[in-house]
Amino acid sequence: QVQLVESGGGLVQAGGSLRLSCAASENIFSNNAMGWYRQAPGKQRELVAAFTSGGSTNYADSVKGRFTVSRDNAKNTLSLQMNSLKPEDTGVYYCYARRNYITYWGQGTQVTVSS
User: Fold this and answer.
1) Whole-angstrom Cα distance, residue 85 to residue 16?
2) Residue 74: DSSP 8-state
3) Residue 22 forms beta bridges with which residues?
4) Which residue in 88, 100, 109 sits closest to 36, CA to CA?
5) Which residues, 6 or more positions from 72, have their beta carbon under 8 angstroms from its beta carbon?
6) CA distances for 69 relative to 47, 49, 54, 114, 115, angstroms
7) Beta-strand (E) ranges in the chain?
8) What are the φ and ψ backbone dihedral angles of 61, each rounded to 5 degrees?
9) What is the Rg, in whole angstroms, of the alpha carbon atoms belonging to the chain?
10) How many Å apart are CA 90 and CA 32, to the nearest integer?
11) What tens-digit pLDDT sequence spans the chain (115 residues)?
């Protein structure tokens, strides 16, 4: 069973930065789709940033130019650098990885951006 563990969330003022990390229990990030979703209170979970299985990246329009997704296959980690944070970025951030039509999720990490 693949396990994904997020870290790096916290409370930050608007305009600040945070870096989220997702550590996998095995090499699941190579050649598979992976990325980050977030869920704000009372809202549906939305895709924030992701790698496709082909290695290209996709970003939500709301985070383009501010967030950067990266991965280190050798260390089985996925990261999300978040700059110029806004209060509307507040939510629980989940990393995921998809392999053989199965999607694995982390437990989530809270990001709170104060105005």
Assistant:
1) 5
2) T
3) 6, 78
4) 109
5) 79
6) 12, 6, 15, 23, 24
7) 4-7, 10-13, 18-24, 33-39, 46-51, 57-59, 67-72, 77-82, 91-99, 102-105, 109-114
8) -55, -35
9) 13
10) 27
11) 899 999 999 999 999 999 999 999 998 887 899 999 999 989 999 999 999 999 999 999 999 999 999 999 899 999 999 999 999 999 999 999 999 999 999 999 999 999 9
d(CA 56, CA 58): 7
Residue for token digits 């895709």? 47
Nearest to 18 by CA among 57, 78, 77, 68: 68
Amino acid identity, position 100: N
Cβ–Cβ < 8 Å for 51, 115: no
The one-letter amino acid at 65: G
